[in-house]
């Protein structure tokens, strides 16, 4: 009898030890919740998500091992694109976050930051943003979250999507030596408005000597007319398209991807890519923000927080890298030759 009791006690102790080990392993896992402003496959959000995951892995946090990743898409371009629907989506995501209780929430692009990230100020969940187009100080006036860019001071940090306009202009001039004037076209959506403000802050300081002018499309039909007029203007050498969401007269929403595809199919004017993914859709190319690299910057910040650095001690960063990308099919359509040295230096060339 004593022998059986001894064996039973040993088994119990082994099971308890095993359960303790499993419990400890579970506690060691970190949880990151990634919130997309748009759809999961959006050409702006998807590469940022990829970059975040890559950076976390490089810093020792691997999904399925010591990291759990949750993701939710607000789809605020095509579907949930009214103020009321955006807030409804934000409420849904915040409830998910409350259920999951992640260590960090990563918000991609402005709508997610504005409606989800700011709701988490000074909570026990740290927030890292990527792809912010609006000015951080403007958001701080809405809700206090930022002491300074060098020392945010609360529980939020992240990467501001600096457009690198000077680099974009310089590269475009190398492709089009006679380039004198650029059209920047945007919309009145929150993202379009924020990008326009960024552009107007950066463009006057470019050293290329290229002039630019601004047009705002308030509808899909107006956008088409603006592009047609640019095509008919011999002085407009290229288009910098930052229209992100446009509605037509029937109430149908046209997303960034549709806008770029239509522009390429219906315009003979070259285009500068705001996002390097635009080139994959047919735009001529040049220098555009590297969205994967921007996501990697945000992922690196998230890793620092997971390792113990307070978010408020991590300075905000500008997007550091542009990608040099070209579409040779588009170049042939326009009768243009991209210099070989530029092609050799390119991050990607689509044929």
Question: What's the quick description here?
Answer:
Helix content is 44%, strand content 22%.
Explain this structure.
- By secondary structure, this protein is of the alpha/beta class.
- Helices cover 44% and strands 22% of the residues.
- The chain has 13 helices and 15 strands.
- The chain has helices at 2-28, 45-58, 83-100, 110-115, 136-142, 165-175, 190-202, 220-232, 256-266, 277-280, 291-306, 328-334, 340-345, and strands at residues 30-36, 67-73, 104-108, 126-132, 156-160, 181-187, 211-217, 236-242, 245-247, 253-255, 271-272, 285-289, 317-318, 322-327, 348-350.
- The strands form 4 sheets. It has a 6-stranded parallel β-sheet, with helices on both faces.
- α5 (136-142) links the parallel β4 and β5 (156-160).
- α2 (45-58) crosses α11 (291-306).
- It is globular.
- It starts with a helix and ends with a strand.
- Residues 9-26 have low confidence and may be disordered.
Placed side by side, the strands forming the largest sheet appear as 2-1-3-4-5-13
Number of strands: 15
By secondary-structure content and strand pairing, the structural class works out as alpha/beta
- Alpha plus pi helix count: 13
State the major sheet: 6 strands, parallel
What is the helix content?
A: 40-55%
Strand content: 15-25%
Question: Which residue ranges are poorly predicted, with pLDDT under 50 across at least 5 consecutive positions?
Answer: 9-26
Mean pLDDT across residues: 91
**Radius of gyration from CA coordinates:** 24 Å
Terminal CA distance: 80 Å
Q: Name the overall outline.
A: globular
Order of helices and strands: HEHEHEHEHEHEHEHEEEHEHEHEEHHE
């Amino acid at each position: 009898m004593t022998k059986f009791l001894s064996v039973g006690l040993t088994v119990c102790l082994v099971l308890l030890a095993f359960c303790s080990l499993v419990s400890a392993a579970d506690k060691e896992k970190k949880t990151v919740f990634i919130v997309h402003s748009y759809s999961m496959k959006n050409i702006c959000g998807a590469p940022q998500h990829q970059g975040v995951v890559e950076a976390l892995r490089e810093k020792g946090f691997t999904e399925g091992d010591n990291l759990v990743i949750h993701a939710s898409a607000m789809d605020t371009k095509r579907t949930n694109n009214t103020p009321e629907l955006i807030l409804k989506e934000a409420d849904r995501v915040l409830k998910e976050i409350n259920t999951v209780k992640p260590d960090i929430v990563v918000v991609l692009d402005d709508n997610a930051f504005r409606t989800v990230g700011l709701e988490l100020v000074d909570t026990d969940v740290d927030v890292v943003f990527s792809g912010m187009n609006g000015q951080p100080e403007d958001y701080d006036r809405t809700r206090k979250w930022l002491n300074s860019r060098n020392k945010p001071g609360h529980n939020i940090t992240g990467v501001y999507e600096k457009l690198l306009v000077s680099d974009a202009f310089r590269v475009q001039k190398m492709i089009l030596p006679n380039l004198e004037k650029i059209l920047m076209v945007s919309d009145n959506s929150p993202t379009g408005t924020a990008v326009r403000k960024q552009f107007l802050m950066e463009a006057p300081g470019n050293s290329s000597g290229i002039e630019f002018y601004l047009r705002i499309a308030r509808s899909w039909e107006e956008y088409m007319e603006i592009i047609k007029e640019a095509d008919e203007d011999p002085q407009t050498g290229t288009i910098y398209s930052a229209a992100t969401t446009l509605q037509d007269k029937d109430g149908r929403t046209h997303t960034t991807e549709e806008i770029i595809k239509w522009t390429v199919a219906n315009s003979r004017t070259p285009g500068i890519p705001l996002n390097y993914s635009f080139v994959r859709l047919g735009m001529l190319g040049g220098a555009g923000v590297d969205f994967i690299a921007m996501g990697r910057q945000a992922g690196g910040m998230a890793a620092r927080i997971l390792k113990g650095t307070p978010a408020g001690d991590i300075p905000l960063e500008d997007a550091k890298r542009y990608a040099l990308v070209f579409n040779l099919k588009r170049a042939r359509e326009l009768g243009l030759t991209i210099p070989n040295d530029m092609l050799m230096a390119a991050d990607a060339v689509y044929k």
